[in-house]
Amino acid sequence: MKKASACSAGNVYHTVFSVFSCEIKVKILEALVVVHILVHHVKVQVVKLKKDVSKGVNKNVFYLCAWGFCYYNYIRTISKGETQSMKKRLLAFIAVTALITGLVTGCGDSKKDSGLRVGGQVPAAFENYGKTEEENYMEREDKISEKPFLKASGKVLKDDYGNGGLVQLKGTNVGGYLLQEFWMTVGAYTENVTAEEDIYRVLTERFGKDEAMRLVKLYQDNFFTEEDFDYCKELGINCLRLPFWYRNIVDENGTPYEDWYTVFDRFVENAGKRGIYVILDMHGAPGSQNGSDHSGKDGHDEKMAASEFFFGDEETVKANQELYYAIWELMAEHFNGNPWVAGYDLLNEPYCTFRYNTGLPDSELHDILWTVYDEAYKRIRKIDPDHVIIMEATWNASDLPAPEKYGWENVMYQYHTYLYDDYDNAKGQQIGNLRSRVNNTKGGNYNVPSLLGEFSLFNSLAAWDEGVKLVNNSGMSWTTWTYKTIASVGNWGLKHTKDYNLNLEKAELSEIENAWTKTSEATNNTGLAKILSKYFKQVYIEMK
Question: Which of the ends of the chain has fewer CB neighbours closer than 10 A, N or C?
Fold first, then answer.
C-alpha cells in the first residue's frame, strides 16, 4: 500500500513538473527530498519521546526508499532530454541523503538510554522476544496459591506438586545478606579482609568468637527486615534467591550450630506469608567452588588453586565435598515438605572466572561437576523426594548433561550472564548478549524448566526494560542480581544503602555496630523498581 501511494505521487509530480526544464526539475526534486527528510526527522523525535524509536526509524527508512524509487522512475520516464550527469547527480543526492537520514534518525541524542535495538541476527524462532506490545500486557491476579508446592512439569513449573497452574518465578537475589561482597556492601576491601571468611577471622581475633558471632547476627538482622519483605510483595516479586555460605550452618570444624536453621526459617516463613518462594542457593561451598570472594573465600590471582572443593590435595577435596553433601542432607531434612521453598540450588558458579583457562578439557570439567551434582541429587532424594533440585551451568547449556543421562527428575537448569563491556549499552551489546543467552538456553532443548538466576543490565534503564521483557517473554524464570547495594554501584540494586567504607581491621566496635545496624536504612532505586515491577506483575508465560 505504501509503495503504491508513493508511485501515485510520482504521476502527480509528472503533470506538475512537465513545464519545467530538466535542470529546474532536478533542483525541485532535491528540495523535496530535503523537506521530506526534515519532516520525518521531526516525526522520529516525537516517536522517541514515546519510547518507540525502532518503529519510527523503520517507518522513515521505508518511506525514504519509496520516495527515492518514485523520483528515480520519474526521471527515467519523463526526462528523456536530460543528460547523464543530471541523472547521476540526482541518484547520488538521494543515496547520500538516505545515508544521512539513517544516521540522524537512527542515533539517540544521548549516550545513555537511547532505547535502540542493536545486535546480531536472531534465529527466526526467537525473533519476537522482547517485542510484546504494551496493549497486550496483562497483570496476573494477586492471589496466594492454596497449594503452592512447586514441581517441574516438562519445561515449566506448576504448583500443587506439579498438577496445578503454571508458575513463572520472577524476582531478585538477596546478595550480600548471608555472604558479604564488599564491592556492593558497606565494608571495605583491606589488606587482610576481602571475603566473608576474613570477616569471621578478623572479628574473632579482635573481639573474641562470641562477640564476632553477635556482630554477624546484628548485620544479618538489619540487612533484610519485615519492611523489605513488604516491599518485595509490593513490587510483585514472587521469588527470592537466597545465597548462603556453608559457615552460616556449620562452624569452623564442620559442626552444625544448634540454631543454624533460625535465619533460614525466618526468611522462608516471612516470604511465604506474602506468597513469595525462596530458592536456597549454596553460594559458598566448603573449600570454595571457584576461589572468588562471592564464595566466601578470595583466591585473588590464584583462584583455581584456592578452589579446594574441586582441586588440590585429594583428602582435602574429599572432606570438603562430604561436608557439602552433609549440609544438603541437613537442609533437605529440615525443609522437606515446605511449600515455599522453590528448590535447592546446588552450587553457585562452579569454576567461574577460570572456567576457560584451567588447562583441562571440557569433558573432564563436566565429569568433575556432574559427578558432584549427581551425588548431591541422590543424597537429597533419599530424604526429600519432592523439592525441585537446581543445577547450574558455567556458562552454557552444553555445560549441563541431558537429565536422563543420570536419571534426574524434577530438576531445573540455571544460567547466569553478565556483559561488562558496553556498560551503558551505547552499542546495544547488553541486549544482544541477553538474547544470545536465551537462545542458547532454548537451544539446549532440555525438557526441564530454566532459570536465569543472575543477570544485570547495568546503567541503562532502557536496556533494563527491553532486556527483562526479552527474558520474561521467553518463559524462563528469572532473578536479577541483586536486591540491596550501596548507592555508588547504581542499578545493581533495587535498594541503596549508605557506603560506610567500613575497615574491619581498624574500626571501633561502635563504628561496626552503627554501620551494620544502618543497613536497614535504604532508599528505593525507583527507576529500576518501576521497570522491574511491570514484569514481576505480568501474567506467567509458558516456556515452549
Answer: N
Among 168, 169, 241, CA closest to 482: 241
User: Residue 411 is inside which H or E element, if any?
Assistant: strand 411-417
Cβ atoms of 245 and 179 within 8 Å: the answer is yes
Number of domains in the chain: 2
Please tell me whether residues 190 and 81 are part of one structural domain.
no
Closest by CA position to 482, among listed 500, 497, 470: 497
Q: Give the DSSP letter of residue 502.
A: B
Assess whether 101 and 150 both reside in one domain.
no
pLDDT of residue 137: 76
**pLDDT at residue 26 in the model:** 54
Order of strands, sheet of 151-153, starting from the edge strand that comes earlier in the sequence:
151-153, 156-158, 166-167
In a domain, 178, yes or no: yes
Report d(CA 494, CA 528) in Å as an integer: 7
**DSSP single-letter state for residue 246:** G
Q: How far apart are CA 479 and CA 456, in angstroms?
A: 10
Its domain, for residue 10, covers 2-106
Contact 280, 291 (CB under 8 A): no
Q: Specify the DSSP element, H or E, that contains 343.
A: strand 341-345
Tell me, yes or no, whether 112 lies in a domain.
Answer: no
Whether 484 is in a domain gets the answer no
* Judgement on whether residues 96 and 147 belong to the same structural domain of the protein: no
Largest Cα–Cα distance of the chain, in whole Å? 100
Whether residues 219 and 290 fall in one domain: yes
Residue 497: count other Cβ atoms within 10 Å of its Cβ.
Answer: 23
**63 and 164 share a domain?**
no
Span 196-212, pLDDT tens digits? 999 999 999 999 999 99
Among 384, 339, 407, residue whose Cα is nearest residue 162: 339
Whole-model pTM above 0.90? no
DSSP string for 258-315: TTTTHHHHHHHHHHHHTT-EEEEEEEE-TT-SS-SGGGT---TT-HHHH-TTTSS-HH
DSSP 506: T
β-strand partners of 53: none
In this structure, how many other beta carbons lie within 10 angstroms of the beta carbon of residue 400?
23
- Residue 217's CB is within 10 A of a number of other CB atoms, namely 13
Question: Parallel, antiparallel, or unpaired: how do β-strands 156-158 and 166-167 relate?
Answer: antiparallel
204's enclosing H/E stretch is helix 196-207
Q: How far apart are the first and last CA of the chain?
A: 35
Residue 232: which of 522, 543, 539, 541 has the closest Cα? Answer: 522
Residue 285: C-alpha distances to residues 243, 315, 358 (Å): 11, 16, 19
Q: Within the chain, which residues score under 70 in pLDDT?
A: 1-136
Q: Say which CATH number the domain at 148 has.
A: 3.20.20.80
CA distances for 427 relative to 116, 119, 133, 203, 421, angstroms:
9, 8, 24, 45, 10
Contact between 148 and 157 (Cβ < 8 Å): no
User: What DSSP state is assigned to residue 352?
Assistant: G
Does residue 119 lie within any of the structural domains? no
